Amino acid sequence: MNASSEVVEYSTATNSRCRVYLPYLLQLLAAMDEEAAAAQSLLFSQVHFVIVQSQSLKVSEAGTLTKLLVDNGAQEHTLPGPNGRISLGEITHIISATSDFIEYDDATDALKSVVKPDWVTASVAKGRLANPRSYSPDPRLFFSGLVLCCADIPEGDKDAIMGGVLATGGLYSSSVTKLVTHIVAMTMDHEKCQTVLKKDLKCKIVLPHWFDDCLRIGKRLDEDPYTLPNPDIIHMKPGDAFLETKQIDLQGASSVQPRELPKFLDCQRPNTRRVDVLDGKKVMLCNDLDIGSHLRGTIEELVNYSGGTVTNTVHRADMLICQYRESAEYRTASRARKEVGNLAWLYYLITYNSWTSPMKRLLYYPVSKRGLPGFDRFRISLSNYNGEARVYLENLAIAAGGAFTKTMKEDNTHLITAHQHSDKCAAAREWNINMVNHLWLEESYAKWQIQTLSNPRYTYFPPRTNLSDVVGQTQIDRQAVEHYFFAPGTVEESEGSEARRLNAKALEQHDQDTGPRGSSQDLVPDRTRPSGSTPTAPGSKHMSGPVRTPAANRIVVHGRENITPSTTSSRGAKDRAAAKLHDQAADIALYEKEKKRTGGVIFGGRRRTSEDAVSNGSRKRSNSKDGGTAQEEHGRDKKRPKTNKLPPPAMRLLLTGYKGWEKNGKKEAEDKSRLRDLGVLVTQDPTTCTHLASPSIVRTKKFVCALARAPMIISTEFIDDCLAKDEWRDPEDYVLNDSAGEQRMGFKLSEAVSRAKNHRGQLLRGMPIYCTETVKGGFDVYKSIIEANGGKCLLYKGRAGSNAASRAGVEEEDTDAMDTDEPEYLYLISGHMPVEKALWPKFRQLVQGTKKLPRIVCTDWLLNSALRQELHWDEVYELKEGAISNDE
């Protein structure tokens, strides 16, 4: 190589030319590579970790992770002996495939990062530490491990899906990579979907309905019914048979009183096998277990034989086994943050040689003698749950204090069902029995407060999804248990367990001084008490309050009688909780907003309580080449603020009878996105629309239901013109004018809208209207119309058991009615089929003895009354034996 070839010329920012020898340049690049390699080796230099092994994380996998972490600069901390806990002082990260280990609650309280093993490999692949929240084993982050990519989805819905996924632990990718686990699309035609097929990527292509249903339920549902190209929710009918459920294992967790002693499952180990999970543990068996001396002796032998020891003193115990939450031992152990469970939980530990928190399963935790306050009023029956899931829900209903019935009668108050297709579900609709999914029962018990049925999570049943798949995933709410059963903040909430054990004896003595706190007054929720306050025993003169002193554990100080009881807990815990809440505030706010959506990610719908939901997403607009180049030249050194948020929609438009998007989902998605840019939000909810677009007056469900809200009714030409001219058009120029339709139906549309404004959706206010199940158009359609106009729709099957409940409803309406000379009628909407005609005599018999007269009418009476927005009567509406119905 000659001298000239060893010289490299390059231009500087000032356009002056410099000369550098090539060997020097190569040496400089080599040094940069060494620095990059050194930086890579220090990727985990700030990480102090410990690995928790479990059934999902074997020894060999843990060894591979350890080597990968240590080679990249991390420092490993060894696990303590079987009688100790992980010391959280220097630990920054805990690697675990599950949140089900002893120190999890302490670790989260101390703001330590608990991550799945995937976090390690993802960090190495990225060359930087990945966000630990996206790899959290917390079951509440049910989209953890999911990497999402969107295809042919409108921009506003894409932003909503991204927000919901990110708030629940998932990740988003703008392009298709090997890491993507799910692609959300409307059809398989998009290039991203075709890429998955061509490259045979391990990725599921699902409809946006899946994300919407998961967010509504708050659980991760099975993707199969939503998977393209042949999703069950579109091609199968609602009444078709469901596939077998994929229930999680509830064996041993379905009863609070197990009938059999635990059996060792590992047959390959010798009979002298020791259960590692109990090695060095001190276990106390509480007297409230109500077991005989022989069984108690057998259990003690099992504990001793398994490496643990049995103690009779609660302050020496590591684990307390008790049946009820009212004992002094329960309160003392719970305040000291010891592990408290029942016999079912102990049997699980011995049987499976695997640790699980007693709060992971609702029936692993002690029950209350008195049950959930107010729950004794309920009579509960089950439908569509089988096997262990059914046994679990039966025992849970009883543990909550309700009455469980295997058969359902008219005096039942609730039917808990996995889906809406069974004889019991049909009877529940007829008898007006509350029909809910199992989440209502589980969360009422977990939070120790009866959950309101107005929450749509408890009354929603995803199509083609059997909710048995997600039974048993709800855990005990620790804060609720602390609030209602033992006073929080009376023990130092330190990171280790030694301080708690040292204070336990003093706490037990304090219980004897102040009296028990497990009285009935403590268990009944006080609506006037602040949510963070501590229940106190009635008649107790000594009030306890936490006091913080330097370099000392917190102690309980007795005050004077006239001092208000302290409602605060540990300041240290509050500081940690406030810091943790501050870090998660943005995600929590976004997640709470997504939970309120009803239209959700399907067809761009939004709920009326989130007016600006679609304005939170970003829109990426591609400028022209010239404009983009100019912007790069003039704004290269400036960071312009993002101004791509959409304003709230000026119009919420409901469409019916529109043919422009028929069988063309891709065009529909694109047009809706364009309309949203113009301020038009296309919604599917008749109760929230401000405008209704239709080619003419039609008797569709959307048209009739929306009319009750008195929207502006315009022609669908408005849509065509907005899209054709790509600009906002004045809706006043498109008011629907259908003279032929008005003449045919005998009313003026403008007058109907005026009457609807006066009625304010209460045309049928307080009217109970019965409807047969086989009526033309379907019961659900007429129920929606009646409820949209303020009425109450009841399914009528003519069952003898329904007469008493139905008659009670009729008489209740009569007590509030004003005395008038006009006769009052009770309506039955029916068709003219033989099975419906057989119900007419029974309906007339039902109304006998009341102050009302029966009227059996065809569907035209309801449709025409709702369209006119006045109770319109004509003899042609009444159905009589021997007559021929107009709707046949």
| Order of neighbouring strands in the sheet with most strands | 4-3-5-6
- Uncertain segments are 1-5, 10-16, 265-274, 489-571, 601-643, 801-820, 884-888
CATH fold naming of the domain at 762-877:
Rossmann fold
The appropriate CATH architecture of the domain at 762-877 is 3-Layer(aba) Sandwich
Q: Helix coverage percent of residues?
A: 25-40%
Globular, elongated, flat, extended or rod-shaped: what is the shape? flat
Q: What is the top-level CATH class of the domain at 762-877?
A: Alpha Beta
Estimate what percentage of residues fall within beta strands.
Answer: 5-15%
Mean pLDDT: 76
Q: Can you put this structure into words, describing what you see?
A:
This protein has 888 residues and is of the alpha/beta class. Among the domains are: 3-41; 48-135, Rossmann fold, CATH 3.40.50.10190; 147-235, BRCT domain (Rossmann fold, 3-Layer(aba) Sandwich), CATH 3.40.50.10190; 276-358, BRCT domain (Rossmann fold, 3-Layer(aba) Sandwich); 375-462, Rossmann fold (3-Layer(aba) Sandwich), CATH 3.40.50.10190; 649-757, 3-Layer(aba) Sandwich (Rossmann fold), CATH 3.40.50.10190; 762-877, 3-Layer(aba) Sandwich (Rossmann fold), CATH 3.40.50. Helix content is 34%, strand content 12%. The protein is built from 29 helices and 28 strands. The strands form 8 sheets. A 4-stranded parallel sheet has the order 4-3-5-6. The chain has a 4-stranded parallel sheet with strand order 8-7-9-10, covered by helices on one side. A 4-stranded parallel sheet has the order 12-11-13-14, with helices on both faces. Helix 5 packs antiparallel against helix 18 (571-595), helix 10 (328-335) runs antiparallel to helix 16 and helix 21 packs parallel to helix 25. The radius of gyration is 33 Å and the shape is flat. The termini are far apart.
